[in-house]
């Protein structure tokens, strides 16, 4: 471990690309052990940083199996993680409870402590680079922007990071260090809490607000100076949260469940108090994103269906005719909304539709259209002898 292996390329069989990106990650299988890994392409200038990373063994970081030089390109073979990114969880969750946010923040800080102890700065901490495995373990992934702190430099040689999460110094104002990662983590906490960037709206959660404010201060001197310091505040906030919950006679399990279970628990507690508005955002196609233009189109569509469908049914003279017209209207106007608007997130459970590849998803949607039209054609054939109404 810790060395460049020029022969590693012959030890793996490529299975499939995991994204549509050029030089994106590829799923591979090791020929001798049959284990699955992810092959990622990195710039050659990151070689020393990745060698340092490879030497770190930590639960909250992916295991680096090998680093390989192949035809002038540097490839890293790392642990294949089964799970979801935090970005996916935030997108599919109505709310994320305080307890779950504090728990996942502690685990990100554990990963950052391990990196920072070796002088490494991640520089791209964001929900898309935080994964929750199927076993409930958090992993901080993707090291395209990783660098080693150099006290002799005033700014980073290469400015990298994601807009919205990157600290001011990542845009050339100063050199990044551990405090830059803590800035990004503060942004992540705010997004987990209210799905907004701190610059747009700060979370009012009493157990998170002050932590976010300190972590995202524009001046690094006024932020947390280390992951250990921030961790101490998170632990203290977690204690206050538990005491408040006890005083309110809320049943909090003493044994820590998996992070996704905690998110589910917090969501169920919140869902017991759902308002009509939040019900629409959770279940009604067109309202779940909260985007005004989508909600406007949804309202127009629902009004159209509410007026047009009963009028069409009224044309039936007998009970059977009315039932058939109801079924036909449902197939034409209601079924496609349920199918194509991902009602109850069922697309995640359907092959092709849950693929990360645009081509595969396109095939999935095409088959969905064919199935819908075929079902409607079969209905017409059965009810009208194949003749058009």
Automatic annotation (TrEMBL):
Residue ranges occupied by any Protein kinase domain in the UniProt entry: 1-259
UniProt catalytic activity: L-seryl-[protein] + ATP = O-phospho-L-seryl-[protein] + ADP + H(+); L-threonyl-[protein] + ATP = O-phospho-L-threonyl-[protein] + ADP + H(+)
Keyword Glycoprotein included in the entry's annotation: no
Pfam families: Pkinase
Keywords: ATP-binding, Kinase, Membrane, Nucleotide-binding, Serine/threonine-protein kinase, Transferase, Transmembrane, Transmembrane helix
Top-level enzyme category: transferase
SMART domains: S_TKc
Enzyme Commission number: 2.7.11.1
TM region positions: 293-311, 323-343, 363-382
Molecular function GO terms recorded: ATP binding; protein serine/threonine kinase activity
PANTHER family found in the cross-reference section: SERINE/THREONINE PROTEIN KINASE, SERINE_THREONINE KINASE LIKE DOMAIN CONTAINING 1
Protein name: non-specific serine/threonine protein kinase
Organism: Enterococcus caccae ATCC BAA-1240
